[in-house]
Amino acid sequence: MPKRSEEMLVDLWMSLLLVWITCVPSVSTTPVGGQSRTAQTGGSAAAASGLGEGQRLLSRAKRGWVWNQMFVLEEFSGRDPILVGRLHTDLDVGNKNIKYVLAGEGAGTIFAINELTGDIHAMKRLDREEKAEYTLTAQVINADTDEPLEPPSEFIIKVQDINDNPPQFIEGPYRASVPEMSAVGTPVTRVTATDADDPVYGNSAKLVYSILDGQPYFSVDPNSATIKIALHGMDREVKEEYFVVIQAKDMGGHMGGLSGTTTVTIMLTDINDNPPKFSKSLYEFGIPEDLPIGKTGGKVKATDRDIGENAKSTYNIIEGDDLGTFEIITDAQTQDGILRLRKPLDYESKKAYTLKVEATNVRSEPGSGGPFKDTATVKIVVEDADEPPVFSKPMYLLEVKENAPVATVIGRVAARDPDSSGSLVRYFIDRHTDLERQFNINVDDGNITLAKPLDRETDMWHNITVTATEVRNHSQISRAIVAIRVMDINDNAPEFATEYEAYLCENGKPGQVIHTVSAVDKDDPSQGHRFDYRLVQEMQSNPNFTIKHNQDNSISVVAKHDSFRRQKQEIYFLPIVVSDQGHPPMSSTNTLTIRVCGCSRDLVVQSCNVEAYVLPIGLSMGALIAILACIILLLVIVVLFVTLRRHKNEPLIIKDDEDVRENIIRYDDEGGGEEDTEAFDIATLQNPDGINGYLPRKDIKPDLQFMPRAGQHSGPNGVDVDEFINVRLHEADNDPTAPPYDSIQIYGYEGRGSVAGSLSSLETASSDSDQNYDYLREWGPRFRRLGELYSVGESDRET
Fold it and tell me: What three-state secondary structure class fits 119?
């Protein structure tokens, strides 16, 4: 550009600046408390300083200017604090006694005020995205007393935005999908970018979108950021995945604007736009003729370039299988067509098959004219195999009469070898199905004969398995079921259904029905059972009973008179002949037992015993049982009473003070003499009244422990020992519970005035060898036994 033009441009900008300073109210006043205060922004304050008197002219304007907002640019990075604005009051007329005070958000830290001039400076670098505005309070106070000269006034400092933030895709990277073969202009997805700058001030947040990578397949709307299809015929089978780069630029996309990018991965989804295709037009399989039904004979496959449900196909046989010998199904995993056998193959009848198979897509797209298809030819060659014999029937039903003679031919089975060679066949019975070996079979012709007689009443049906084996190859075996039904003949006589026992009332009337009798027959005639009943020949003119035929194949036994009495005859036996109508007819004689009983007036049986007849009239069975129970109870009470009385009279224990016997016990050890007080209790011998005069007997074990009887206690005074011993001797001789041997009881006291003195050797100092017991024989016959005992003991010692 020429220099003259540059100068003209500078002059133009200066003129515009002067017009803006003049026209825009950069100084505002607000009356506060009858005064006015002014505030100047940084730019206007600088202009005012150049105008001089012009500033004063503006301050004297009559209208009040809005001064409660100041502005400061963000991200200022100068070395000196930036002047935000200036506060001024009408009180400041050169008076040095006022002071400006600033309070509120950031006062003292971010913003500082000159107390004398009212200039406000930003002390730190500001960021609008962190905080867009600050609310502060200004006040004029007395510099000396700090008393407020005006009420506080609130104003705002706004941070002006600059383009310092690029657009950002918060939700990126993106993934989207669109069907293949979509038309041009089809929306795919929409992306969104955000800009932290002020969307109101300038174009810092005005975004424009463009595509950097992904052309010519896709395009993007510059304003809405909608990604669309830009190329026709995009095929998934050619390329499935695309990577698109989208750019968002602020400042309306002009030069100098900031930008951000994101990546969008777009997948083409499949549609059914490809038909199934067989890999071969002709398939050939060889299948042996003995292939089991349901087994696989071969596989075909039609491939499809589509995926998922669009690639699935079904297979059908459309030609060449009029008889339905084969079927084809689809393997859900591999999508193969599996050819299976539905009917047996026979090499001898048909050796080859030619089938036409069709593969059809399961799904079809709307408007495509139907599902896609493809066809192929399948040629099947039947291979010859050695087959087992084939029975003429899978199951045979034969009949034979029971009790038929052994070797009777029941029936015949037949099997043949289906192979062209025609091997001979041998027949056998599987003995696991004929454990009792009741049947035989001819190995050559298959005739089944009877090996044992059969009884229909035991087994009505017999199921056996017959095997047919090739003579040439014993491994080829076939089986057939033979069901043999045993036919009935009349070989069982009818008989009573159960063992009947009838009851006849004495007070019954002539013609009363005693019992109803029916019969059973094990045979099973085709016409059903029909029985004939009659009395035996000897009982045709029975004076007591007769029979009456019923319509239900049973009879009723009827009494002829009412003179039946139990004391005369208690039981009657009535033989009855039962015969059937078979060929030949069978019969049996059965006996009916009739018991004469006593009954009530309404013919209810009460008693059938002869003894009951002698009871008083009107005495019931319950009363008889009660009387018998009372009699038995009385007898039991009497027996118990007698037994207790007898036990009471018998002395079970003989008191020691009344018993003169004592057991003689021999010991192998020697005692310690009189000073040995531990061998036994010597106090008992010294005190005849010890333990109340009662000492238990040691020669017998009593069943009951009795205390000494009253009135028989022996005291030391006035006791006649001779009388005492005589009494006790008499009781001992007559006591049946006494032991069958003699015993001696030792007493510590024997009465006063006895010439014998004490018999105990414990109180004497002499030994047994010094004692002479001959004087005992002089005491009389009563002490003879005692003298003999001591004499024997002395002679033993001498020996």
Answer: strand
3-state secondary structure of 478: strand
Characterize the bridge pairing of strands 69-73 and 153-160: parallel
Q: Which of 154, 82, 163 is nearest to 128 (CA)?
A: 163
Find out whether 722 and 753 touch, Cβ atoms under 8 Å.
no
Residues 577 and 536 sit within 8 Å (Cβ to Cβ): yes
Enter the tokens of residue 398. 């034969």
In the chain, DSSP finds a helix count (H) and a strand count (E) of 7, 42
Q: According to the model, what pLDDT value does residue 681 have?
A: 52
The dihedral sign for the CA sequence 183, 189, 195, 199: positive
Instruction: Show the tokens assigned to 12.
Output: 């133009």
Query: What residues form DSSP beta bridges with 98?
Result: 142
* Alpha carbon distance 30, 63 (integer Å): 9
Contacts by residues 364-368 (CB-CB < 8 Å, ≥ 24 positions apart): 364/272, 365/271, 365/272, 365/273, 368/272
Q: Is residue 727 helix, strand or coil?
A: helix
**Amino acid letter, residue 793:** G
**Which top CATH class is 168-269?**
mainly beta
Please state, in angstroms and rounded to a whole number, the distance separating the CA atoms of residues 744 and 584: 99
Residues 683, 690 contacting (CB under 8 angstroms): yes
What's the Cα-to-Cα distance from 21 to each of 43, 47, 67, 159, 618, rounded to whole Å?
Answer: 9, 7, 15, 21, 150
Classify the C-alpha dihedral 260-261-262-268 as positive or negative.
positive
CA distance 745 to 654: 12
Residues in the chain: 799
Report the alpha-carbon distance of residue 36 to residue 62 in Å, rounded: 11
Report the amino acid identity of residue 426. Answer: R
In 3D space, the residue among 481, 498, 492 whose CA is nearest the CA of residue 592 turns out to be 498
Q: Is the pLDDT of residue 60 over 70?
A: no
Give the CB-side neighbour count of residue 640, counting CA atoms within 13 A: 6
> How far apart are the C-alpha atoms of 746 and 752, rounded to whole Å?
16
Q: How confident is the model at residue 710 (pLDDT cuts 50, 70, 90)?
A: very low
Cis amide linkage into residue 716, ω under 30° from 0:
no
pTM surpassing 0.85?
Answer: no
Mean pLDDT over the full length of the chain: 78
Q: Which two tokens stand for residue 216?
A: 């010519």
CA distance 443 to 396: 17
Residue with tokens 């900008």: 13
Tokens standing for residue 334: 């591999």
List of E strands, 532-614: 532-535, 545-549, 554-559, 571-579, 587-599, 605-607
User: Measured between alpha carbons, how far is 323 from 341 in angstroms, rounded to an integer?
Assistant: 12
Which CATH code fits 69-160? 2.60.40.60
Q: Which residues of 469-479 are buried (b: 16+ CB within 10 A; e: fewer)?
A: bbeeeeebebe
- Domain spanning 495-606: CATH superfamily: Cadherins (2.60.40.60)
Q: What is the residue type of 321?
A: D
Residue with tokens 């009792």: 436
Query: Quick one: average pLDDT of 650-656?
Result: 53
d(Cα 111, Cα 316) in Å, to the nearest integer? 89
Which CATH class for the 390-487 domain? mainly beta
pLDDT tens figures, 472-530: 888 889 999 999 999 888 888 888 888 888 888 887 788 888 889 999 888 877 677 88
Q: How confident is the model at residue 65 (pLDDT cuts 50, 70, 90)?
A: very low
Residue 54 and residue 60: Cα distance in Å, rounded?
A: 10
- Alpha-carbon span 570 to 174, nearest angstrom: 115
Whether the per-residue pLDDT at 23 is higher than 50: the answer is: no
Q: Which amino acid is at 83?
A: L
- Kindly report, as residue ranges, where domains of CATH 2.60.40.60 are found in the chain: 69-160, 168-269, 278-383, 390-487, 495-606
- In terms of CATH architecture, what is 278-383? Sandwich (2.60)
The conformational region for residue 505 under phi > 0 = left, psi -120 to 50 = alpha, else beta, is beta
CA distance 266 to 189: 9
